[in-house]
Design a protein that fits this description.
By secondary structure, the chain is α/β, with parallel strands linked by helices.
């Protein structure tokens, strides 16, 4: 029967989850970033219409997110809030995984580690795939550590190992590029496990891979390989510069290095004191998990990527410091005073070394949740669905495009959403596919990732030839115009401008190869074309 210690741990854990949930709640009304959350709602909507990720459209982040959010949409209705419900659930699961993993080193370490994780998670509630892979991966690692470190009966240990393997396998359904980190984390504990324990872990891991195997069978191995190859190629083609000293990116890199150093130092220290030390192996497993994500961090040197790459060693820093502050690896558990000092030091390092990503974000969310200040967002609506943007001008222009295309387009016609100059793009209004569900995407590339859609052999030119409608904008800055010019030529020679607002233009495929779209735009009034200018609140026919 569970004792007082169990209920104390459960109470602390749920209290932290409750506080995190309250701080996340304002995120449901916050503006949605086009870069990520647009595809988080657009892709599941396509799944509900029978189209499959990696076969009919490309997803760069693994197939689990479209499937899971689509299931939630089927139950709760397709909406931005449904996607955010899934995102909030994944974030709470991630915080719980950190709590459970740190619990082997005491309730104080677990509480501080999960508080750091909560602060990192509360600013956003989007269902990003990276949150899913970290949530399931760290939860699986937590169960694996409990199975190896704990003195539990054979049957209970078997269930822990089966569950750990299943969660680790399932995490790769969210992001297959996290596989090296998952394998590296399991190696130190695998080496000290018995043959029976290894079999249970492998059996669970195989079961966890079943959803991904089913997905590959549905879309076809060839389509899946094309998606993986395209995603890997697009990331390898990025040119990255070193962050400026003192920037949020540099601050997180410093914390990343400190965390890796602390875990490897603590693990090797325990291992040298006693060979095949289970605690030392668990510490090394956590460090290796984060070390395995160095390629992920290097693929895009910006705060969010580095935060998730370092998340294990960053949030679990109280664990490493609790071990190091013993001053003697054989003295277990750590003396209470030293454990308190370690937890305080870890929290101070996190808040001081990463003020923008943690401290400022926490203060902002607290004002949103408990003060009079609220996130400012401007609503865009289309066919019963809504979207939230931070820029009122952009919201007016996007709404204008929806108002212009709805009476003109026929169901099942195709729509391409992109940038005015298709030689390069970093952002696009992917949410328009979600807001215009009667139209099917004209391209495999719903998200315009640089070095993917704009390569000579991407197939975009052929897709544009077959497209019925285009919505193009110059609102998003483009870092490099590295692609071929053929897509721009197709737009210029085969599409007529039907409506415009601000930096946005709506184009219809009108087939002629005479004057360019720019030249034809001046004669649209004579042809009965509508031009919307919401800046003046007028509509000209």
């Amino acid at each position: 029967m569970p004792g007082r210690r169990f209920f104390a741990r459960l109470t602390v854990g749920f209290a932290i989850l409750l506080a995190a949930g309250l701080l996340m709640a304002p995120g449901f009304d916050a503006p949605a970033p086009e870069l990520d959350e647009g595809q988080l709602v657009a892709y599941p909507a396509q799944v509900l219409q029978g189209r499959l990720p990696d076969r009919d459209f490309l997803t760069f982040y693994g197939p689990a997110e479209p499937w899971v959010v689509a299931a939630a949409d089927e139950v709760l209705g397709a909406s931005l809030h449904t996607e955010r419900v899934v995102g909030m659930g994944l974030r709470l699961l991630l915080i719980w995984a950190v709590f459970l993993l740190a619990l082997e080193w005491g309730l104080l370490a677990a509480a501080v580690a999960s508080v750091i994780a909560a602060i990192a998670m509360v600013p956003v509630v989007a269902a990003n795939a990276v949150v899913g892979v970290e949530a399931f991966g760290l939860l699986g690692l937590a169960l694996l550590v409990r199975a190896i470190l704990g003195s539990r009966s054979g049957s209970r240990r078997d269930w822990l190992l089966l569950s750990a393997g299943g969660l680790l396998g399932l995490s790769l359904f969210w992001r297959y590029d996290f596989a090296p980190a998952t394998v590296m984390a399991a190696v130190p504990l695998w080496l000290i496990a018995t043959s029976r324990e290894r079999r249970r872990l492998l059996l669970g891991f195989g079961a966890g891979l079943v959803p991904y195997v089913i997905h590959v069978a549905l879309v076809g191995p060839g389509h899946e390989w094309r998606a993986i190859h395209t995603a890997v190629f697009s990331e390898s083609g990025r040119r990255l510069g070193l962050p400026a000293l003192g920037s949020p990116t540099a601050q997180l890199l410093i914390v990343y290095a400190l965390g890796l150093g602390a875990f490897f130092a603590a693990g090797i220290w325990c291992e040298r004191r006693r060979r095949a030390d289970p605690e030392g192996r668990a510490l090394l497993a956590i460090g290796l998990y984060s070390a395995g994500l160095l390629p992920f961090a290097a693929s895009l040197l910006e705060p969010v990527h580095i935060l998730f790459a370092s998340l294990a060693v960053f949030t679990l820093l109280p664990v490493a410091l609790t071990v190091l502050f013993r001053l003697d690896p054989a003295r277990r558990p750590t003396l209470p005073r030293r454990a308190l000092l370690a937890a305080a030091a870890a929290l101070l390092i996190a808040l001081v070394a990463a003020p923008v990503i943690l401290r400022e974000a926490l203060l902002r969310q607290t004002r949103y949740a408990f003060g009079s200040e609220r996130p400012v967002a401007f609503q865009v609506a289309g066919e019963g669905r809504t979207w939230l943007l931070a820029d009122p001008g952009a919201a007016r222009d996007v709404q204008a495009m929806i108002a212009a295309i709805e009476p003109l387009a026929r169901p099942r016609q195709s729509l391409f959403v992109g940038t005015t100059d298709l030689r390069g793009a970093n952002l696009s209004d992917t949410e328009l596919y979600f807001l215009l569900p009667r139209l099917r995407p004209a391209s495999y590339y719903m998200e315009l990732e640089q070095n993917a859609f704009n390569t000579p052999h991407s197939g975009l030119v052929d897709e544009l030839h077959r497209a019925d409608w285009l919505i193009l904008t110059s609102r998003f800055p483009t870092k490099r115009l590295a692609g071929p010019g053929q897509p721009n030529q197709v737009v210029a020679h085969e599409f007529c401008l039907r409506a415009s607002s601000g930096s946005y233009g709506l184009y219809q495929h009108c087939r002629p190869t005479g004057p360019s779209a720019v030249e034809r735009a001046g004669t649209q009034a004579d042809e009965g074309t509508r031009t919307l200018d919401l800046l003046h609140g007028k509509q000209t026919l």
